[in-house]
Design goal:
18 helices; 22 strands; 20% strand
């Protein structure tokens, strides 16, 4: 943050100094909401949450080096007392950003892919100037101003995510740090229950391009009709990206390797260059194109853009993290969050990465989908049940629609297999028990039979085993007993499900 004396912070936030606070004391360090992150010179913002009240840690923060606490009540240490600490932090971030005229603010929004695109673009802008970007998904009314407050007079680029849980949220965030470049990725079904329909989601996402100045740039996905329509909502110049031949920045000749990583030719108005992504999943192509289009507008040569995209590794945790165990089991940890669109992308990545290997998945019911929730979760079950899995684990509450969809997909697949094919005995060379029927001998625990919830096993040979687990711990334990060298596991669900714990159990440690 730019250095500010407490008197100036009190003026900006309409606060009052208390606790023997020195008005001349200068905040030079980061603004933080976690007392464990305090550094000498920090400002600690005390936020009262549902389970923890930051005011209880005020003394600890000052002892660790905080100059003062931004608080909503007296805390017996130097403080700036305000009516609402989040609103005061927002006002402080707005004021700080206004004092950084040399900083170019880039905003990114969309239903899926914001964090990956932000990470890629921050890597690109770092090639041409000091860059501040959030770690992970600091994209709401708390994380957004916290990120803005990391900028100082040396910051040239401020790369921000903007999320929306209702109409007006993105407009609010854009007022804190007015963007000069706005990137809109897609309009999907995330938070469908909150908005009521994709058109309302598009209305909310489009607030980003409405916030752009006339001399700004809107970077829009030409392949998404709802995003493309946002061109009519801004006076800024529009740059198109996508796979369409009409896109200004586009991907040509896309291929996917045996690990599910995409390569393509990056085509721009001034030339082309090859890109070989280290990110997993073909859906990463769209994220890379969005970042490339914004970087191109900033003047980066296409060769430099391609080089950086090809060297970029996953940066934010629990997003398509692919780890190979020593025994050859591959775990795809994409557990940070999920919606219908990102689930389809994840299963596509699993298919590409697994190839002919046995595959497993651990998922949970999608949330915030409103009246369409049961139908969309059943559709997810059909997707998973038809994905060629050896076993599917559905974790936590509200699992019935997924289980029903998976059951239907498995039975439909079984009905297409001749009975003689399913029941014929086989002679197999191998270790003892290798040729025995499913359910007997040492091979029994690896036999992919089907059980729907607590129902008896159907005995459909070769079908997906579908199970419900009460929690991540149960899913991890039961899945661990089924895995054999060479298997591939996808772990993906909404944030509240905490499925990263399944991945941690499979990988033999706590990877939080």
């Amino acid at each position: 943050m730019i250095p500010l004396p407490l008197a100036r912070i009190a003026e900006i936030t309409s606060g009052a100094l208390a606790g023997m606070a020195d008005p001349r004391a200068v905040v030079r360090g980061p603004v933080v909401i976690d007392s464990r992150a305090v550094e000498p010179g920090s400002l600690f913002v005390a936020i009262k949450g549902e389970r923890v009240d930051g005011h209880d840690f005020a003394a600890q923060a000052v002892e660790a080096g905080a100059v003062a606490v931004l608080a909503s009540r007296p805390v017996d240490v130097p403080a700036v007392i305000v009516g609402d600490t989040v609103a005061a932090m927002t006002g402080l971030a707005t004021a700080v950003c206004a004092e950084l005229p040399a900083t170019t603010v880039i905003g990114i929004t969309g239903s899926a892919g914001k964090t990956t695109t932000k990470d890629l673009l921050a890597r690109l802008t770092a090639r041409i100037g000091p860059t501040v970007a959030p770690v992970g998904s600091f994209n709401n009314e708390i994380g957004h101003p916290l990120t803005v407050l990391k900028a100082d007079e040396n910051t040239r680029y401020l790369v921000l995510e903007l999320s929306a849980r209702d109409v007006g949220h993105i407009a609010h965030l854009a007022r804190i740090a007015p963007p000069r470049i706005g990137v809109v990725l897609n309009v999907g079904t995330a938070h469908l229950g909150v908005f009521g329909g994709k058109e309302e989601i598009a209305r909310a996402k489009g607030e980003l391009v409405e916030a752009l100045p006339a001399d700004g740039v809107a970077v829009l996905n030409l392949d998404d009709p709802l995003v493309a329509a946002m061109a009519g909502r801004t006076g800024a110049r529009v740059t198109w990206y996508g796979r369409s031949e009409d896109a200004d920045v586009r991907a040509e000749n896309v291929t996917v390797d045996e690990r599910g990583r995409a390569s393509f030719t990056l085509r721009t108005p001034s030339g082309a260059a090859p890109v070989a992504l280290r990110l997993y999943g073909e859906h990463a192509v769209e994220n890379a194109l969005a970042a490339a289009a914004a970087a191109y507008e900033l003047g980066l040569p296409v060769a430099t853009i391609a080089e950086e995209l090809s060297e970029a590794e996953p940066r934010s945790r629990w997003r398509m993290e692919v780890t190979d165990r020593e025994d050859g089991v591959t775990v795809i940890n994409d557990a940070y969050n999920a919606n219908p669109d990102s689930m389809r992308a994840a299963f596509g990545a699993l298919d590409a990465l697994a190839g002919g290997r046995r595959r497993f998945a651990v998922i949970a019911a999608l949330r915030e989908l409103g009246e369409e929730g049961p139908a969309l979760n059943e559709e997810l079950g059909r997707l998973a049940g038809g994905a060629g899995l050896a076993a599917l684990f559905v974790v936590g509450p509200d699992a019935d629609p997924i289980l029903a969809g998976a059951e239907a997909a498995v039975r439909e697949a079984a009905s297409r297999v001749p009975a003689a094919h399913a029941e014929a005995p086989r002679e197999v060379d191998g270790p003892p028990g290798a040729g025995e029927p499913p359910g007997t001998g040492p091979a029994a625990r690896l036999s992919p039979v089907t059980s729907f919830g607590d129902a008896p096993e159907t005995g459909i040979q070769g079908a997906t085993r579908v199970s419900h687990a009460a929690d991540a711990a149960q899913a991890g334990a039961e899945l661990s007993a089924l895995l054999a060298p060479g298997d591939v596991v996808l772990v993906k669900g909404p944030r509240a499900a905490g499925l990263e714990r399944v991945a941690a159990a499979l990988l033999g440690g706590d990877r939080r």
